[in-house]
Amino acid sequence: MEDIIVVEDLRKVYGKDILAVDGISFSVHRGEVFGFLGPNGAGKSTTIKILTTLLEKTSGRAAIDGLDIDKDQAAVRRIIGYSSQEVGVDDDLTARENLLLQCSFHHIPKEKAIQRAEQLLETVKLQEAADRRLKTFSGGMRKRLDLASSLVSDPKVLILDEPTTGLDPQSRQDIWEYIAELNRQGMTIFLTTQYMEEADRLSDRLCIVDQGKIVAEGTPLELKARIGADIITLSVRSDDPEACQKASTAIAKMEWVKEVGLCSVGLSGDKGLTVMAQNGSAIIPLLVRLLDGIGVQIDQLTLSGPTLDEVFLKLTGRALNVVERKGAVKGRGWGKRGKGT
Amino acid sequence: MMMEWASETAAIFRRWNTKLVRQPIFIFFSLIQPLVWFLLFTQAFSAIGDIPNFAQLTGTASYVTFFTAAVIIQTITSSALGAGLGLVNDLESGFMDKMRVAPINKSAILFGKLFSDAITIVVQVAIILLIGLAIGVEISSGLFGVIMILILAAAFGMAWSGISLFVGLTTKSDQTTLSVGLLTTFPLLFLSAAVMPLGLLPAWVQEVAKVNPFTYVAEAFQSLIIEGFVWDKIGNALIAIIIIAAISLTASILVFRRKIR
Question: Which residues have a Cβ under 8 Å from the Cβ of B163 and sit 6 or more positions away?
């Protein structure tokens, strides 16, 4: 398949020694949704700012649709649409005015711009609020408008930096639908996210990034297959403080078990274990009997296929803890900008 | 190319005008301080008009008439802060990134804002002049003089805005932009012929005042208010404005190109 974004050995060093992006290479096929998944500080936004020509790279090479991001900066800007984490819309203007303003930045003639704005307002279901000022908008509405405003020029590649961070579940669902629809119409989409579910659901292919490096690349299925195992999560009655440790040692010796890790289960944060094992359904009875034998009582037990969470955990040794950054979407105040990297 | 630049600048100009019309309070914010000076300071210090030689040097024995020029300058410099603050706000809100990713000229982003600020300043200076008329200031150059004052005010405003643009783009901080703007205005005002005629200033202040652009801008306003059209003074003011504009706007555009891709 033809590649529309090609990145080779890209590096970005801030100041003298802060390595934000540490030699990453990847390519995005024309017409796919490509995800960049990683925690805060992984280098996602830095990569995006370099691809959108907003930030100068330290070394490496990157091209979009055959255009070098340095040499053909102006041409690159003509074929991309960009929606940042900060939500670049003007709160004093109405939704329609914001879109018309973006149209004029792209030199779209007035009559065509009016049509385009109307059409985009319809796409993101903001027709009814079209002539209201953004001051009255919710975070989700502002984000939808921001998405629409990055589409005015009908870009070949749409670049989205954490499109749903800080949004409520319904707004997130809406944004996901728009992204999927745009992709069905043939647009290539590059997005970053710190949500496993989002990456899994939207991306055709994805990279998992951590500390400036790509730690894995593939389709969500391929990545999950790397775990090559089912996941059994169980929690134990907590009378005995040693119970978890005892159980863990015993389970690790079982056949089919690949890995055992301690974790906290459920909302109460009970002590529990994550067991990665082949043939999960067959192992459960054995597991229950084993624990019964050593006097550990099971409180809860679930069996699931692997998720990208486990992939991340396995690759980096850390859980991908999503900390909601309040104000990333709504806050527009002085100096409160969510600083992504 | 030129056409593109003009349409980009016009779009950004319209954006800021719309914002201004929707937040008209901002027109009055930067008027508060100059008005306090205009209405209170000139009353408390009205005896300055009785100083021997004051009337010979200035052409009027009314201190408030003489001081009108200083009030206009203060209004302009305080309004000029808006340019830098506006861009810092755009940098913070992410709107600047949106503009930069669009294929538009950097200088259009700056000039669109500057032209809109010029409009703000014209409205503000017109308000000052109306208040002046109400408290007994007479403008001897008449309606055309008023128009000339407004033109000079707009031009000086755009040139001075360049300084706040430069500070705003360099520091990316609204606090610094505000402080630099506020801290430079008063010393420059008191070290110029805006508050006292040159001839009444101490010798060392006179020397400073002669290289202070505020002196030339103030003298042009003073002459238009007190004497009529004195083309020498208008010409000097224009030269001062052009020099400030050339330096401040070039510096702003350069820092915009280099620091913010």
Answer: B80, B84, B180, B181, B184, B244, B248
Domains delineated in chain A = 3-224 (3.40.50.300), 229-305 (3.30.70.100)
Residue of A234, A233, A216, A206 whose CA lies nearest to A312:
A216
CA distance B186 to A265: 65
Q: How far, in Å, CA of A119 to CA of A125, rounded? A: 10
Q: In angstroms, rounded to a whole number, what is the distance separating the alpha carbons of residues A97 and A11?
A: 38
Q: For chains A and B, what is the number of CB pairs under 8 angstroms?
A: 86
CA distances in angstroms from A107 to A84, B3, B5, B37, B160, listed in the order given: 21, 10, 10, 46, 30
Give the full edge-to-edge strand order of the sheet including A257-265. Answer: A257-265, A270-277, A230-236, A298-304
Full DSSP string of A118-147: HHHHHHTT-STTTTSBGGG--HHHHHHHHH
* Cβ-nearest to A90 among B8, B95, B101: B95
B6 touches A: beta carbon within 8 Å = no
DSSP-derived secondary structure letter, B50 = G
How many residues are there in chain A? 341
Strands of chain B, DSSP E: none
Instruction: Classify the complex by whether its ipTM is higher than 0.90, answering yes or no.
Output: no
Contact yes or no for A88 and B89 at CB 8 A = no
Cα A83 to Cα A158: distance, rounded to the nearest angstrom: 8
**Which of the 8 DSSP states describes residue B41?**
I
pLDDT per position as a tens digit, A262-311: 776 665 666 788 888 877 778 888 888 888 888 888 888 888 877 787 78
**CB neighbourhood size of A17 (10 A):** 6
Residues whose CB is less than 8 angstroms from the CB of residue B103 and which lie 6 or more positions away in sequence, other chains included: A74, A77, A78, A105, A106, A107
- The pLDDT tens digits of the residues spanning B43-101 come to 888 889 889 889 888 989 899 999 999 999 999 999 999 899 999 999 999 899 999 89
Whole-angstrom distance, CA of residue A285 vs CA of residue A263:
21
pLDDT of the residue at A37: 92
Phi, psi of A299 (to 5 degrees): -95, -45
Contact call for residues A102 and B12 (beta carbons, < 8 A): no
Please state, in angstroms and rounded to a whole number, the distance separating the CA atoms of residues A198 and A195: 5
- Give me the residues of B, 75-134, that contact A with CB < 8 A: 89, 92-104
Burial label for A36, CB within 10 Å (0-12, 13-18, 19+), is: buried
Q: Which residue of B has its CA nearest to A337?
A: B92
Cα gap A206→A188, rounded to integer Å: 13
Distance CA A277, CA A253 (A): 12
- Inter-residue contact A259 to A241 (CB < 8 Å): no
